[in-house]
Amino acid sequence: MRATSHRLPESYMRAALRLARECPVLPYPNPWVGCVVVRDERVVGKGFHHGAGTNHAEVEALLDAGPRARGATLYVTLEPCCHYGRTPPCTDAILKAGIREVYYAMKDPNPVVSSKGARLLARHGLRVHGGLCSGEAIAVNEVYVKFQTTGMPFVTVKVATSLDGKIATRTGQSKWITDEYARGRARLLRAEHQAVMVGINTVLSDDPHLGPRQQGAAEPWRIVLDSHLRIPLDSKVVKSGKCIVACTAAASAVKKARLERAGTKVLSFRGKRVPLRGLLRRLAKEEIISLLVEGGGEVLGSFFDSRLVDRVCWFISPVILGSVRSRIAVAGFGIDRLDQACRLQEAKIEQVGNAWLLQGRPRWPW
User: Fold this and answer.
1) Do 228 and 247 meet the contact criterion of CB atoms below 8 Å apart?
2) Which among 9, 71, 65, 60 is positioned nearest to 37, based on CA atoms?
3) Which of 91, 88, 46 is closest to 65 using CA atoms?
4) Cut 0.85: pTM above it
5) Residue 110 φ then ψ, to 5°
6) What is the pLDDT of residues 183-197, one digit of tens each?
């Protein structure tokens, strides 16, 4: 095998990173992973993970390479697994194929795997290199990293407001603050998440669909915060067949039974309000690790008050609604001083239809 130049390993890893996002479905709770097999400076095998229960990217790439994998170098965006899960260990496949050298971008944050896969391969005489393009790999798998390191879903907040920060007029009218292009972009966000969450007031006032409404797009779970189970049985979210309602133990047992007969999952919690952290941990146990929160103002305020937001997508329409009685985007308890404010970092803005989309990562001062 010819010596590889300093530039080439990075280019091969970037090819693997591009492959990682080719999975046609959300692979969650598994990560996005891509892999290439290189021999004599030529890619002889490519693969990516197709979702839970399917071959991992390494196995796909090795199958693609066939006998050409013997003596080759493997580039993969995540440390190869070394345990039996839904599929056998990738380290076994790598050793059996006769790979001589492995580059991986990021260490697997899953404690069952973390560093163990790399050490196993090294013990069998392979040259193993970690950390190549790690920043890009972590960015691709920020949802998976959050889940594995905290046991919580990755939370994106989506807001659509007027220029003066309102989500509805003083009479409650909200359709439509943004135009169809911006709303289409918002529906794309739904397709990027496993679940969409709203509060019961949003369901009662708007009866939203909460689906992507795109051919071929997977339907997300609809999650409704509804302490007293006021949700109508004929609401669109209940009729979707993919609805989870979070309530308190004081909610009607009769209404709970009716919802469950209608195919809705009901999660009950102690206390007067649904505890957001407790709910998120329950969702993670259900393997829902990617959540889009759409409102209303009290729900969004609670998420910001609890510092549970990982990403903000804020659509701003060039319209002014006015009135102190108009509904505001973020309610909740709020802050006393400006130095306590949540500020967005890595912020970027783009025009979408008649609106601007501002995206960023929340940062709190403590």
Assistant:
1) yes
2) 65
3) 46
4) yes
5) -65, 120
6) 889 889 999 999 999
